TrEMBL record:
InterPro entries with a match to the protein in the record: DUF7086
One of the Pfam families matching this protein, by short name: DUF7086
Residue ranges annotated for the DUF7086 domain, each copy included: 109-241
Ranges for region Disordered: 24-95
Listed Low complexity bias regions: 25-44, 52-69
Protein name: DUF7086 domain-containing protein
Organism per entry: Musa troglodytarum (fe'i banana)
Top-rank taxon: Eukaryota
Length: 249
């Protein structure tokens, strides 16, 4: 009985082998290999970062949106603009010849009609620091300045002459030092004694910033070198005293 089963099993295996050979199938069984570790790990990697061109484009778009205006240029300031916001053109007059407007004096006719014929101011010696009051006759001193401008304006070429840039000062009575009594210029520009220095032709003692202050509040162009701004200050003050005189800018 056992031998018969063995024979049958052998015949079955032989028949299976013949069938595989007939169909062209290899008698050995092929087992599919698992995927390689490199391909499996590559499928788990994160996506690559964006390229440099894409990052640059993002940075360019963000910087363009942050720019306040096209071109990036600054707004040009008007050199003849008035006082900044919060400051008024009106002030309390500190001298009898001053108006309630910054850097502005009354006209000559107004002052004479109010019997104001003399202008005064403080001066201090550069050497011994002695102080005294200097007085000028209004009509005669203004006549000197006006005649000088009328006679030599065509030679000035819109620039203050050397005599205005480096003025001559009175001598000191205390120590005898010549050319040393300088006008006292207040630290607050609104308190500067403009008419006093005009009549003494000592406006050149002012700093460039002080002269620019005058031109700013009298609506005159205030850019340029000191000789240019000083020239405008002289003519501006003369125009205030004599609006009909030859002092147009």
């Amino acid at each position: 009985m056992n031998s018969k089963s063995t024979v049958e099993n052998s015949l079955c295996r032989s028949d299976d082998l013949n069938v595989e050979l007939t169909l062209g199938v290899s008698p050995s069984r092929h087992v599919s290999s698992p995927p390689s570790s490199s391909s499996a790990s590559s499928s788990l990697l994160p996506p690559p970062p964006p390229t440099l061109n894409a990052a640059a484009a993002v940075a360019s778009s963000s910087s363009a949106s942050a720019s306040p205006r096209a071109g990036g240029g600054r707004t040009r300031r008007n050199p003849t603009q008035g006082p900044r916001s919060g400051k008024s053109d009106s002030i309390k007059p500190i001298f009898p010849w001053s108006t309630d407007r910054r850097a502005t004096v009354h006209s000559l006719s107004h002052l004479l009609s109010h019997d104001l014929k003399e202008v005064f101011g403080d001066a201090q010696c550069k050497r011994c620091e002695a102080r005294r009051i200097i007085r000028y006759d209004l009509e005669s001193k203004f006549g000197e300045v006006a005649c000088r401008i009328a006679a030599t304006r065509h030679l000035m070429h819109d620039r203050a002459p050397a005599e205005w840039m480096n003025p001559t000062f009175p001598d000191c009575d205390a120590c005898g030092q010549p050319n040393c009594m300088r006008p006292v210029v207040d630290g607050k520009k609104r308190n500067i004694n403009w008419l006093f220095m005009l009549l003494g032709q000592t406006l050149g003692y002012c700093t460039l910033e002080q002269l620019k202050y005058f031109c700013k509040h009298t609506k005159n162009h205030r850019t340029g070198a000191k000789d240019r701004v000083l020239y405008l200050t002289y003519l501006g003050l003369c125009k205030q005293l004599d609006p009909n005189g030859p002092f147009d800018l």
